[in-house]
Design goal:
mainly alpha, 3 helices
């Protein structure tokens, strides 16, 4: 089977992703930890503002309404990062199998060329 230059580029991109995955999973976990720490602090500050006399109840409600959706959204994003890292901890199975099949096919083609 002959691949076009575009297909060879895509195969090389898959190989690069496979090589980078061990580092990428730790980057994902690090980003998730940073997001949870930063927005956990913001959530703590929001809840401390609610009970304080620093702001009026209307101002406290406005701050809560502005920042709480962002806290929830970023907590969800951190959960997605952690989910990706856990799901593909040992690598993406589909990508690994595809690359192995391509390698086996290439070896078989090379063997046929040497024989024929």
């Amino acid at each position: 089977m002959q691949f076009t230059p575009q297909e060879l580029k895509l195969i090389e991109r898959l190989r690069k992703q496979e090589r980078r995955w061990p580092r990428t999973r730790w980057v994902l976990l690090g980003m998730a930890a940073f997001i949870l720490a930063a927005y956990g602090y913001i959530a703590h500050m929001l809840f401390s503002i609610l009970g304080s006399d620093t702001f009026s109840p209307a101002d406290s409600a406005l701050l809560f309404a502005l920042f709480w959706p962002k806290v929830i959204l970023m907590a969800g994003l951190a959960g997605v990062f952690i989910g990706f890292a856990i799901r593909d901890w040992r690598g993406n199975v589909h990508r690994m199998l595809l690359l192995r099949l391509l390698d086996a096919q290439r070896k078989e083609t090379e063997k046929d060329e040497h024989v024929g």
